[in-house]
TrEMBL record:
Species the sequence originates in: Fusarium oxysporum (strain Fo5176)
Gene: 28943661
Biased composition (Acidic residues): 101-123
PANTHER family documented for this protein: C2H2-TYPE DOMAIN-CONTAINING PROTEIN-RELATED (PTHR35391), DUF6590 DOMAIN-CONTAINING PROTEIN (PTHR35391:SF5)
Signal peptide, first to last residue: none
Region (Disordered), start-end ranges: 95-123, 195-217
Biased composition (Polar residues): 197-207
Name listed for the protein in its UniProt record: Prion-inhibition and propagation HeLo domain-containing protein
Domain Prion-inhibition and propagation HeLo per the UniProt entry, residue ranges: 7-117
Source superkingdom: Eukaryota
Length: 231
């Protein structure tokens, strides 16, 4: 497994391209469903958008002092790469998908059948669902992969809200890594401070000194970070 986010992102991009070509091959029509190529192209677009927004080619340098977040990104990218390899192996016939393995249905309990009814019908569908989930998790990491929103626009003075914001992150997601919780709490404080600075500017622009927009709540600031999969 590569330890470079940039290299893994390039490998995933190549994996998407190769799998796209394979799924467009008429010879695999009996292996994949008609809508799976469209789903793959959609996930490829989402991945390309993540690469662009996150600046994947710069993340190795940006995260050199943030090992925990870097490891999470590497694991997710490696997972996507393996899934793309599995999908390719299925389409070229190197791997038999589980949906084409004959099992005795009578051996399944009623509960198992009900569970299967809500599951992907083919292994390719399952692979695409896992790819979609992994890309979603990369997007959730966006708040920690990017530089803090207020960098270079506010002073380095610690916000009086910071201890409370860090505690809010840790109480909302008790399983999240302590270092990440502190980073995210600081990001919330930075967003709050930036918003207050914007309010001051807006207030001065009102001829009558009218009130600016309401300050966002802590919950609103937290939700903007999209952190549900960081624990």
């Amino acid at each position: 497994m590569s330890n470079s986010i940039d290299q893994l992102a390039k490998d995933c991009t190549r994996g998407f391209e190769v799998l796209n070509l394979q799924l467009e091959n008429p010879a695999v029509a009996n292996i994949v469903k008609s809508d799976e190529l469209a789903r793959l192209k959609n996930e490829q677009s989402r991945f390309t958008r993540w690469k662009r927004n996150a600046g994947a080619h710069t993340l190795d340098q940006k995260l050199q002092n943030n090992t925990r977040v870097k490891i999470q990104a590497i694991r997710l990218l490696s997972h996507i790469q393996r899934l793309l390899e599995d999908a390719h192996a299925i389409t070229v016939g190197d791997q038999v998908p589980w949906d084409q393995i004959n099992d005795e249905e009578d051996s399944q309990s009623e509960d198992e059948r009900e569970s299967l009814d809500s599951s992907p019908e083919t292994e390719m569908e399952q692979v695409l669902a896992h790819i979609a989930n992994a890309i979603g998790n990369l997007s959730y990491l966006g708040a920690t992969l990017r530089e803090p929103l207020a960098d270079g626009r506010i002073t380095d003075e610690t916000s009086p809200y910071e201890p409370f914001d860090v505690q809010h992150v840790r109480s909302k997601y008790p399983a999240v890594d302590k270092v990440i919780a502190e980073r995210l709490g600081k990001d919330i404080s930075a967003r709050r401070k930036l918003f207050q600075g914007q309010d001051s500017t807006e207030l001065s622009s009102y001829p009558s000194g009218g009130p600016p927009a309401d300050e966002p709540t802590l919950e609103t600031l937290f939700n903007e970070l999209d952190l549900e999969d960081l624990n």
